[in-house]
Amino acid sequence: MILPYVYKLINRETNEFYFGYRFQNVKLGLRSFDDIGKKYFTSSKYVKHSFHKFDIEVIAEFFKIDDAYDFEQTLIKDHITDPLCLNKHYQNFSNRKFKHNVPHSEESKRKMRKPHGKINRTAPGKPAWNKGLTKESDIRIKLMAAKRAETGNPQNIGKTYSPERIEKIRTKLLNREVPEDQKLKMSKAKKNKSWEEIYGVEGANLKRQQNLPKGKAHHHARAIMTPDGKFDTITDAVKYYRIADQTIRNRCISEKPKWNNWFYIGNSI
């Protein structure tokens, strides 16, 4: 007989666990062991991206969907305080089953709201599941990023804006005034931290490249002599002659008589 069921998933590496129930298998004509892990991989965003790391246990099957749901909620309620439990909330029993599909009252919404006005979807005492995680440190984030790339980036992450919009944003940012308390907060957050800790390895290397001295202040900069006079840097000569920098370098080191008036002056300046 094909019945709704309650299951438990246990992470083989961390021992974290998750409770769930399923009734759509009845409509699909699938028994529990032909459904979970083969056709169904949970609806939990905390689990499905790393489902392959979990062992599956079908705890019980029920004749009625309501009974399966109530049993699942009882299990979650009994384990919600366990730090290894990945379930984030549960519903109390009531005469109206599937209470999770009923909109919250305005009073409940006010209790759930954070100071900035958004509803807190995280269980009390538990941080957001993805807080502090990156593609490099967590397989779930990595898989989410890969899936986003496959589906065409519907969130428009990395979208290229028009030059007009970019200029508008740049002007707004350049002219803004950062409050002193925000400056102090930003300063404390970066204090005693390396660039790698603040910006990451790639960001730190980019920051160092951006901070290299430019023009004649660069430690490799050399003045050159040309038929039209001296230039402190090759960049200055490029702007004057409107030719490629490599062309100027080739002329300065050339032994051909026609380029005798092109040469480097002394050592680095």
Q: In the residues, how many domains can be counted?
A: 2
Q: Taking all residues together, what is the mean pLDDT?
A: 81
Structural class: alpha+beta
Can you write the helix and strand succession as a string? EEHHEHHHHHHEEHHE
Strand adjacency order, main sheet? 2-1-3
Largest sheet: 3 strands, antiparallel
Global shape: elongated
What is the number of helices?
Answer: 10
Please tell me how large the radius of gyration is: 32 Å
In short:
The chain has 269 residues and is α+β, with helices and mostly antiparallel strands. The protein has two domains: 1-149, no CATH class; 218-265, no CATH class.
List keywords for this structure.
alpha+beta, three-stranded antiparallel beta sheet, 6 strands, 10 helices, 269 residues
Word description of this protein:
This protein is of the alpha+beta class. The protein folds into two domains: 1-149, no CATH class; 218-265, no CATH class. Helices cover 37% and strands 12% of the residues. The chain has ten helices and six strands, in the order E-E-H-H-E-H-H-H-H-H-H-E-E-H-H-E.
